[in-house]
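To: structure desk
From: M.T.
Subject: fold request, one chain
Message: Could you run this one when you get a chance? Sequence is below, nothing fancy, just the single chain.
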Amino acid sequence: MTRSFLFAILAPATFHATSAFVMVPSSPSISSSKTLRSMSTTTADGYVVDPFKRNAIYDQNMAQYLVDLHDSEATFDFCGGMMFQLVLSDALREHLVKLASNEDEEAALKVAKASKYRMHQLEDYAQSASADNLGIFHGREIRRVPWAQGGMGFVLHLSLADAQDPEGWTTQEIQGYDGWRHDVGRDWRTGDRLEREGFDNFRKKFGPDSFSLNHRFYLHWDGLDRLWLSAEDGCEGTPVAKPNPIQSFFNKLL
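Reply: Done. Structure tokens follow.
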């Protein structure tokens, strides 16, 4: 799906368990999160993006991989050049840490097969706000975040659904969710509005001018064994190495 980058960065007031998944339990060959961190931080950027190296370190433990991407302030390349830093809420990070050490395949992170490259292709897909924190997740794309890695001020924020997560979707976000539609016609939220709805420290966390749009997300592979984080509307990203300082400078000029 193609986005209009210039349109999307305007203030929000201008915007009016299945056969599809591959189960990815914790890896029996890796004993602890500490071991994973010490191995993953041997790369120049502090995290691994090459599929071969990723598999050598994590095997199929994608829950731990997501945690390490968050901890290393990793960036995802969304929609062909939009650099988003992955940020997990504390509650979701804790949930993923538990999944990473759990050998029960019924409670494992799910990654869809390469043939399921759009959410609507998943078995039992429905246009709703539901998420199970295993195969489908609640998230937000957040703009104008001053500290975001990638040089563009973008954050991809994932939170825990249907639980006591202070950074989770507000009641209003759930009730009004229509993430299968194009984002241009959807309801972007300012920071002060999200705080009124219940995300108390949104601007303190993401910056005074930050604003957001909520999406459901899922994970899938591609034919090159890369991991993709895909929104319901079709925009998706894969982990990439952090841009060099010169690239970041020119990104900020856009």
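Reply (cont.): Residues 90-100 form the longest helix (11 residues). Let me know if you need anything else for the meeting.
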